[in-house]
Design a protein that fits this description.
Layout lengths: L23 H4 L8 H9 L1 H10 L4 H5 L1 H4 L11 H12 L3 H14 L3 H25 L6 H8 L2 H33 L9 E2 L8 E2 L1 H16 L1 H28 L13 H12 L7 H4 L8 H30 L10 H8 L5 H33 L18 H17 L6 H24 L7 H27 L5 H20 L16 H15 L3 H30 L16 H8 L1
Antiparallel strand pairs: 1-2
Helix pairs in contact: 3-23, 6-12, 6-15, 6-17, 7-13, 7-15, 8-13, 8-15, 8-19, 8-22, 9-10, 9-19, 10-11, 10-17, 10-18, 10-19, 10-23, 11-17, 11-18, 12-15, 12-17, 16-17, 17-18, 19-22, 19-23, 20-21, 20-22
């Protein structure tokens, strides 16, 4: 069926207003920013406003109705489970599997790298379960930001928003620079030969204009149409799948089982150290949840697309890891170009170019789907006014958030041009795990707490059990990092985690049942997701936590001087709508339809 033409025109807004407008009111419509006097007055109320936002929470109906209307125009519902499945492939299978597998097999896991992928795959699937339930229940563009805003409140959602935008910008910049590196390999040229050498400081002295061009091209495609982006991604991912199948078949054809011995040269600790790193080869699936607003039938399409693609990807990763370990002894695996050198050593030198081409195509799809998904995150964050609502506007013709896409592309391009980003790699890892841990916590809260329904004793029991789960998981992670060969600490932390989870199941009644699709074995699955994400966070090292703490501090300064005041004004109606009209309250009938 053709989509109705009404999706191309503003259903709620002022048709006489141009999309291309840049007035102060479009950026700062809140009362706190109308003059220096009102801003100073707002700053004096910062403690009061912060407390208000700390406990302030949104709800499903608001996210689906009032908040979404702030974009003026609707995004087009044009995607199916088929589109989401291939978006899953395009978003997840990038260069990570080619780079991280050899690096971690050589340094930490040996042939047991397959166990690292199994462990990280299980953790990723637990997070996928949580995302799927939320995306079906609250099908909006905000993804984890919207879900956390509903269940854990505005402040928790801000922490997620800040990390999401940081990840989007730095992650895209890192992939774009890697694109240039793989192009260099494909052309058989020296490293950095396609970059411009300058006299700037180390790690900033190689300018990368190719990375900038790639970012601009992929973002432009994403701006034109979500459906056209899906077509391009589908064709590219199909081609990539053929290359991956070839790599797996060719690798097993030259496999030698004797290379698997010794299987655990670095012990069990090495397996989990590697798991914390290769986990990020699974990254990107959360972009699929942000496309729920553009999905024709979220209750059917999202579970099929998200769970289906991630299940197949997990199997592919494990097969690729096993085949690499069987082709070469782990100490002979090249850290930088594992599959290329492995094929060269078995007489298939030409295959290294096929591997480089596959990685190049994979990174292109990651950037393409990332430009689509990350702009949706940013759009919904702007709808809440944490960043200026100007970036929430959706174009009436394309049905895409052009300003949000341009914001992320500009920031990523600036960083990709100058920075090698080595210092920030672990920061991206820890922020991703932190958000996934918050998502699992939010799912438990959604199932076991509901305003106006939960009694105070049940709420206190839920909070106590959640604190026990989180504290025991942190204790397990810390003990593993301090004493990987010990066992006494686990005698305390693991039973505590079990008791906390069992306490929720036995003593806190569920207040909400999913209407269509829900995570199985609640609270056990989300509780296990909390534990695994915190455990992997603890495997990243102290430097990652220091950088994460510093970045969080900078984010809090921004929140106290801007975010808290903007969101407070919106929550209390102290702002002027950029659509040229006051947002209509969602009627009881609309709310009933949303719940249905």
């Amino acid at each position: 069926m053709h989509q109705p033409k009404s999706t191309d025109s503003p259903p709620n807004g002022d048709n006489t207003k141009s999309y291309w407008r840049f007035s102060k009111q479009d950026f700062f419509p809140e009362k706190s920013f109308q003059s220096w006097a009102t801003y100073r007055s707002a700053l004096r109320e910062t403690p009061l406003r912060f407390r208000d936002r700390l406990v302030g929470r949104s709800n499903d109906a608001a996210e689906l109705g009032e908040v979404r209307k702030r974009s003026e125009n609707e995004m087009k519902r044009c995607l199916t489970w088929w589109d989401l499945t291939w978006f899953g492939f395009g978003s997840v299978i990038g260069a990570g599997i080619f780079v991280l597998t050899g690096q971690e097999a050589h340094d930490h896991a040996g042939p047991a790298i397959i166990l690292s992928y199994v462990a990280s795959g299980i953790s990723a699937m637990l997070s996928v379960f949580c995302y799927t339930e939320f995306a079906v229940e609250i099908p909006v563009a905000g993804g984890s930001f919207a879900y956390l805003r509903v269940e854990l409140g505005d402040f928790a959602a801000f922490i997620a928003a800040a990390n999401l935008i940081l990840e989007s910008i730095i992650g895209a910049a890192a992939v774009a620079r890697s694109w240039t590196s793989y192009l260099t390999t494909l052309l058989n040229r020296p490293s950095n030969s396609l970059r411009i050498h300058t006299n700037l400081a180390k790690d900033y002295n190689y300018l990368d204009p190719i990375a900038v061009v790639v970012l601009i091209i992929t973002s432009t495609i994403a701006i034109i149409s979500a459906k056209k982006t899906s077509y391009i991604n589908w064709i590219a991912s199909l081609f990539h799948s053929v290359i991956i199948v070839f790599i797996i078949v060719a690798s097993f054809a030259h496999a030698d089982t004797s290379n698997l011995s010794p299987f655990l040269p670095y012990g069990v600790k090495g397996v989990f150290q590697a798991a914390a790193i290769v986990y990020f080869a699974y990254g990107g699936f959360d972009n699929i949840a942000t496309m729920a607003e553009e999905t024709r039938n979220p209750s059917k399409d999202i579970p099929l697309g998200l769970l289906g693609s991630m299940s197949i990807i997990t199997v592919i990763y494990c097969l690729m890891a096993l085949s690499l370990g069987m082709m070469q002894k782990y100490y002979n695996i090249d850290r930088e170009a594992a599959y290329s050198i492995a094929f060269k050593n078995v007489g298939m030198k030409w295959a290294q170019y096929l591997v480089a081409l596959g990685a190049l195509k994979g990174m292109t799809s990651v950037l393409l789907v990332g430009a689509l998904g990350q702009a949706r995150y940013t759009t919904h964050i702007a709808r809440s006014h944490i960043i200026p609502p100007f970036f929430a506007l959706v174009h009436p013709k394309t049905g895409t958030p052009i300003y949000a896409t341009m914001l992320l592309t500009f920031a990523s391009a600036c960083i990709a041009l100058f920075s090698s980003l080595d210092v920030l790699a672990s920061l991206l890892s820890i922020s991703t795990l932190f958000i996934f841990m918050m998502m699992a916590t939010a799912l438990i809260v959604r199932r076991y707490y509901q305003r106006g329904v939960s009694t105070k004793p049940h709420t206190l029991k839920l909070v106590a059990c959640l604190l026990i789960i989180i504290a025991s998981s942190m204790g397990t992670s810390a003990y593993w990092g301090l004493n990987p060969k010990g066992w006494a600490g686990y005698v305390v932390t693991v039973p505590l985690w079990f008791a906390g989870t069992l306490g929720i199941q036995l003593f806190v009644p569920q207040c909400r049942t999913p209407k269509v699709w829900g995570v199985p074995l609640v609270p056990w699955f989300p509780s296990l997701s909390i534990a695994t994400n915190l455990f992997l966070m603890g495997s990243l090292g102290s430097d990652a936590f220091v950088r994460f703490g510093l970045c969080t501090g900078v984010m809090l300064v921004y929140y106290l001087f801007f975010g808290v005041h903007a969101t407070y004004d919106v929550a209390h109606g102290n702002y002027e709508e950029t659509v040229g009209m006051q947002i209509e309250k969602v009627s009881d009938m609309e709310k009933a339809n949303m719940k249905g």
